[in-house]
């Protein structure tokens, strides 16, 4: 399967491609396909009345069918027609990476599928949620615009080390909950760990706040009026339990606005309130309202202070367009609280238009980078707008001693070694035998014996964002979690159960010998008494063919007894009866 035949996927940068895993379609079991079919039939039956209308025709646009788990190739072939793509990944990936995939118009699909015990809802991302939840609405162009724009905004958001710790806790718990042999004590401990991290995040970062907007729209959003909302959020569209319960009056419906930022969420529980947007344009407007408060838009002292608090790799963009990437550790302010000097510590790099400048990567700037910010004293024109001829008129020439004094009082004194200009803007001046100091305080920022001094050019900081400007050059190794999703090893009894499901599927799809089914039912009763889904599929065939009525009655009685004695199965089995009585035709293909 050539995933990269899709144009959107092929255009992904290398640091994102490192998250992609093979789907391994052959690993899906007959039970997995039965789970997909049950959920999709329930969704189709129920959601056709409560989902935002484009959901149903959107299934076909996304390359999905009710009958079987989609292959990534089928999805990419279909999504490619509307300018999107899809990749499979290993469970949860870091929010920043997830957002960036979205910015590139690529859906991130968890390759795994939920266990039958979590058929109504799973906190772990799975192929039902990611493909049947997110993909069908992509065909609505304004929503697709919102999704990709959200990805762009999210890829610029500041996040903290605590955000990543929270992500790891969520990922760990979701993996445990999908492990059939997980120790209950481990799950309890993981839940406590997650709760502790949620309660001790401190002031939420830009990424944490954006995650709330994402949750209450992309995952759990409603559209329309408060009195008659429709579902468009993927978390609801993929949950056969909560898609129904969310419409109850006890789930509060609130108008969607920027105030939604004040509502945190818990992925492990049903949501106590949901937010209704009148249209997708409102989503874009609210996102734009929040984006105007973010560091990548505000820049300046606000952005630099956020970068220092972040303690992660960030990028500051000078007014010349020069991008300085590194871990920001210091900022000098003037009397107006404007930055006049900035400093990074550790590996740093210089870029322009997200492309690293030659010979200015993190190996060369391994110990950090520092530079003044501002205008030269007695000059109204910003330094970045100077031309080489202006330098000559000032008596500044390559290879000659030079003194640059800034309005702040910072002085750069040395021999001009080289000049880098981009698109008629000066972006970098390099000096040898250079001393940098503050003439007012006497503080020295750079000594001649330290080597070459590279000075960024720019009278202000226009933008500050999390991550590197040229991620492929700066971050060759993606921040991929060490915790991997659990690969189930099936025992012999489970393998035999898979074979029973396979036989039933073969009978239904290929009109194989129905006479095989009585023995399957006998095996289910004697060896797999906890099963209900395979029994429902046999009953469906018997009811629709009018064959073996006595066995059909036996199966129905057995399922009713299970529904009565096991509350967790009651709704599932009764909904299954309803599907048999009101069959869903796979209209999407």
TrEMBL record:
Boundaries of every Biopterin-dependent aromatic amino acid hydroxylase family profile domain copy: 1-340
Binding site for Fe cation: 129, 134, 219
Keyword Metal-binding on entry: yes
One of the record's GO molecular function terms: oxidoreductase activity, acting on paired donors, with incorporation or reduction of molecular oxygen, reduced pteridine as one donor, and incorporation of one atom of oxygen
Assigned keywords, A-Z: Iron, Metal-binding, Monooxygenase, Oxidoreductase
GO BP terms, alphabetized: aromatic amino acid metabolic process
Names of required cofactors: Fe(2+)
InterPro entries registered for this protein in UniProt: ArAA_hydroxylase, ArAA_hydroxylase_sf, Aro-AA_hydroxylase_C_sf, Aromatic-AA_hydroxylase_C
The organism's place on the tree of life at top rank: Bacteria
NCBIfam families reported for this sequence: PRK14056.1
Similarity-based family: Belongs to the biopterin-dependent aromatic amino acid hydroxylase family.
Protein name, entry field: Phenylalanine 4-monooxygenase
Lineage, highest ranks first: Bacteria, Pseudomonadati, Bacteroidota, Sphingobacteriia, Sphingobacteriales
